[in-house]
Predict the structure of DUF317 domain-containing protein.
Amino acid sequence: MPLSERQLAAFADKHATQIPYDTSPRHLAGPGDARHVTHGLAAAGWNTVSDPLSAEIVLVSPDLRYRLQFDPQSRTSAWWRLRAEPAGRKLGWYAEFGEHVPAEVLAGLTDALVAQAPVGSTSPLGELDAAGWLIDGRGIAYSDHPSCKVERLPEQGAGTVPWREQVPVAWHIEARDLPTDIGSRGTHLWHAAFHRYTPERLVTAFVTALTDPAPLQRGLFDRTATYGVTQKPSPLTPQQTVDAHTTRVKALRAQARSARRQQKNHVTAPAHASTAQPAARR
């Protein structure tokens, strides 16, 4: 079912009454509104296949290859699960995300999935390097706020390859609260895990959204991942945050329609007349 004006109005009604607070760093901002993710996919033509009266939401792409599950009652630490089925020569892959992953950061990945366009020429660790994160020789990046790390997990035998080299890898991202005791690792807050066949451009899109220095907007009483966040009144008005969401989902809808139109034209394009063979003479 496509995204309706009524659903956009419901989003606007909630956020129009909340005074936005700039919240940083991003990885500690808390889950936010899941509709940053689900509205974008619905606008791009993904269909809801879950029980409408259930807390669980399951969205499936128009070509049935991709499936996103959001389960806030999950008994595991993963509330979001994204799966891609094998298609032709394209391998299947899987990614999962914890309860407190910011919806806006996850939307960076799902928007890139819908757009089907390269995010850029950089790799995930290249983005982290450009953002000023500390990267050690093992391919682990640490934020300047020492509570988030991005770990590159190469295949067995590839652990000695420098991180700038291209090798098949999986990725694991973890956010923890700052330790309160000497020797403590701190409390686990959320994680993101990417199967090794996850397209690198999607991992890069997630990391790009994660390292964006712009704060995320949260309501005064919204849940954050920890008390260690910094919050101050945002210069944005409630209406501006609503308008930004509406503009984004409408752009995704237009991108998806354009992509489907191009695909249809490609499939139905007539063969060139020059390839026709003349009829044989008797």
About this structure: The chain has six helices and 13 strands. Residues 157-167 have pLDDT under 50 and may be disordered. The chain has one domain: 5-13+36-156+165-177+187-261. The helical segments are 5-16, 35-43, 103-115, 124-130, 200-211, 238-268.
